[in-house]
Design a protein that fits this description.
about 35% helix, single chain, D-amino Acid Aminotransferase, Chain A, domain 1, alpha+beta, 10 helices, four-stranded antiparallel β-sheet, Dna Ligase, domain 1, about 325 residues
């Protein structure tokens, strides 16, 4: 299947909606990842990938840096995931720090395994891993440091993973993100179930590619005494990844109409406090988002929430995303 260019969802929707709001779209033709929106009032706005010309530059840059964003959120009293940043060998030399991979391992032992490691500037769950042993820890950290100079080591938190999308002090969508999983039928192997899931993605137009060779999947299976040839009992649900990103094969369950007013207020206030107009607020909730906020953690904030995978999970989601970007276009005028 031909893979779409980054941001192609946004381009398609903007092309469709621009005439409805009195705007014209100009796209750079070779790579088709950047564009201009020209309104009748002569105002021109720009976008790149999923980043639209709504949020201030400083606030957007902070949101892209998980460690800095967590610092400000914690300082403002928001419940964040406990953890610390550590640096690649080259970056340690550059900044004169001793917070290297060995220090990271000592910290992981101090807080106790398992721990979560993730790239500081990563997106779509790439490189995020829950590690249980020294060997897994060093392997995951070296993978991160080959791509990012900063890695975060965090205490795992459990619950339901939600994304709440806010635009100008209004929640415009919310959905639960469920990690990549398969459900047994008593006959098919795990590998066959994964292939079937991939076929379902393709048939619905979702361009998510499941990477069965992902070492995180293999480790999760091994911990459970399973492998790709194992057959799950009928109805048994098996989570194959610890992160719930839709880009890695996760599922989405829309909860826009179910979200408790308390969580709406949290997401709106956090978006405003982080200096953003348009934001995806990621929460881990110990309970359900339909109930009053009690125990939850802010996982991160995203100033350019990509919805390419979410939009392909159903017709209702297509309508939500199209309506959301209509509001974004109107806000750009």
């Amino acid at each position: 299947m031909k893979k779409k260019k980054p941001g192609s969802l946004l381009l398609d929707i903007f092309r469709k909606l621009a005439p409805q709001v009195g705007a014209k779209i100009l796209i750079e033709p070779e790579w088709q990842v950047v564009g201009q929106v020209a309104f009748r009032n002569k105002r021109k706005r720009y976008f790149r990938g999923t980043t639209v010309d709504l949020n201030p530059v400083g606030a957007s840059d902070i949101a892209k840096d998980k460690n800095y964003a967590e610092f400000f959120m914690r300082a403002m009293g928001y419940p964040t995931v406990p953890g610390r940043p550590f640096y690649s060998a080259a970056h340690c030399r550059a900044i004169g720090s001793r917070q290297n991979i060995e220090a990271a391992y000592r910290y992981a032992r101090k807080i106790g395994f398992p721990v979560v490691v993730k790239p500081n500037s990563g997106t779509q769950g790439i490189g995020v891993a829950k590690v249980h042993t020294r060997r897994e820890f060093y392997r995951a950290m070296r993978w991160i440091f080959a791509r990012d100079r900063v890695a975060l080591v965090q205490t795992p938190v459990s619950g339901k993973d939600y994304r709440i999308v806010v635009l100008d002090c209004k929640v415009i969508s919310a959905y639960e993100r469920i990690p990549l999983n398969v459900v047994g039928n008593g006959r098919s192997t795990i590998r066959q179930l994964l292939r079937k899931k991939q076929e379902q993605f393709i048939s619905t137009g979702r361009d998510t590619m499941i990477r069965a060779e992902d070492s995180r999947i293999k480790l999760n299976l091994k911990r459970r005494g399973l492998n790709f040839r194992s057959v799950l009992p009928r109805g048994e649900k098996l989570l194959l990844l610890d992160n719930a990103n839709l880009s890695t094969g996760g599922d989405a369950r829309d909860v826009t109409g179910q979200i408790h007013s308390g969580f709406r207020k949290v997401a709106i206030r956090l978006t405003r406090d982080m200096g953003l107009r348009f934001c995806g607020v990621d929460l881990m909730v110990a309970g359900d988002i339909s109930r009053k906020p009690e125990r939850y953690w802010v996982l991160e904030v995203n100033a350019a929430p990509g919805l390419d995978h979410y939009v392909k999970t159903g017709r209702a989601q297509e309508n939500i995303v199209e309506n959301m970007y209509r509001q974004v276009l109107l806000a750009l005028r």
